[in-house]
């Protein structure tokens, strides 16, 4: 499994470099209008369509593909024997495509619950300055997640519908000058109930995100979800609000994100209501996201 994951990552990097060679463009030039514009009418928001684990209000331009590999290791407090979590790994890969400047769609697959996911993002409003001021960017995100784990015999009636979860999210983002972006994201998660699994069917969370640009190539991001009606525990494990701190490194051909988080999952359905790590106890997962963008 570990060798397979490493090979996938290497293949991603090689194919990404090949794609850039074909187009003759790097990340900065492809996404300049969206993530690094010099035009004050369209201020820069986030460097990537993700803040850390969750989506950002940044959208891909039309006919642009983002190929993303996300990797989370085990908990840092697991000790030397587990090499502070590096012996363990979860991975999620996804493709996101800009159908238009205001409509993006994507799908992915992750090791967390062997989940397949799909989503769409629609931007009704984009922050602008100049003569027609729009104070915020508004993005609506809708996702569906399918759990494909093989369950044991005591769950014989676990239907296809009960394997599905749905997320609806409203994202409001605003850039303040050249160095600060804030985002709010009210989020609703629905699970189809199964009497054999003690989970809430409907969960509500208020998410928030922050990005501080330090240099042209470095930003610090913070992402936090406050669960409004979560259970105190699930399966005997105490639940916590997910908090992630990350660093965005723009390297010309990639956006490389270094992440520290108390969540194992890398999509909203697993983050909300299934985060059992406590930052104060050292239940922190180190990981990274690699985003490779090219035009088709």
General description of the model:
There is one protein chain. With 296 residues, the protein is mainly beta. Helices cover 11% and strands 45% of the residues. A hairpin with a 3-residue loop joins strand 12 (243-250) and strand 13 (254-261). The longest helix has 22 residues, at 2-23. It is globular, with a radius of gyration of 19 Å.
Mean pLDDT, as a whole number?
Answer: 82
How many strands appear in the DSSP assignment? Answer: 14
Distance between the termini: 32 Å
CATH superfamily: monomeric porin ompg
Tally of structural domains: 1
CATH overall fold name: Porin
User: Could you estimate the helical fraction of the residues in percent?
Assistant: 10-25%
Low-confidence stretches: 1-30
Q: What does the main sheet amount to?
A: 12 strands, antiparallel, barrel
Q: Report the sheet-strand fraction.
A: 35-45%
Computed over alpha carbons, the radius of gyration is 19 Å
CATH C-level label: Mainly Beta
**Shape, per Cα inertia axes:** globular
Structural category is mainly beta
CATH architecture: Beta Barrel
Descriptive tags:
single chain; 296 residues; mainly beta; Porin; 12-stranded antiparallel beta barrel; disordered N terminus
């Amino acid at each position: 499994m570990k060798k397979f994951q490493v090979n996938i990552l290497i293949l991603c990097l090689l194919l990404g470099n090949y794609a850039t060679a074909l187009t003759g463009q790097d990340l900065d030039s492809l996404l300049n209008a969206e993530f690094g514009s010099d035009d004050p009418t369209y201020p820069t928001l986030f460097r990537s369509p993700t803040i850390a684990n969750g989506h950002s209000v940044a959208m891909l331009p039309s006919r642009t593909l983002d190929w993303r590999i996300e990797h989370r290791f085990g908990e840092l407090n697991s000790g030397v024997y587990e090499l502070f979590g590096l012996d363990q790994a979860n991975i999620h890969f996804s493709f996101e495509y800009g159908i238009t400047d205001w409509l993006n769609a994507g799908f992915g697959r992750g090791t967390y619950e062997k989940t397949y996911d799909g989503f769409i993002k629609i931007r009704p409003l984009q922050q602008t300055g100049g003569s027609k001021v729009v104070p915020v960017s508004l993005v609506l995100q809708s996702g569906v997640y399918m759990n494909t784990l093989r369950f044991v015999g005591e769950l014989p009636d676990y239907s296809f519908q009960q394997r599905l979860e749905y997320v609806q999210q409203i994202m409001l983002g605003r850039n303040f000058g050249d160095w600060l972006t804030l985002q709010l994201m009210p989020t609703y998660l629905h699970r189809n109930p199964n009497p054999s699994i003690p989970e809430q069917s409907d969960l509500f969370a208020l998410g928030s995100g922050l990005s501080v640009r330090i240099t042209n190539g470095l930003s610090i991001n913070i992402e936090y979800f406050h669960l409004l009606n979560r259970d105190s525990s699930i399966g005997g494990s105490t639940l916590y609000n997910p908090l992630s701190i990350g660093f965005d490194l723009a390297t010309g051909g990639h956006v490389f994100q270094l992440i520290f988080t108390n969540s194992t999952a890398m999509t909203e359905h697993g983050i909300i209501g299934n985060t059992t790590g406590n930052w104060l106890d050292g239940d922190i997962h180190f990981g990274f996201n690699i985003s490779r963008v090219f035009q088709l």
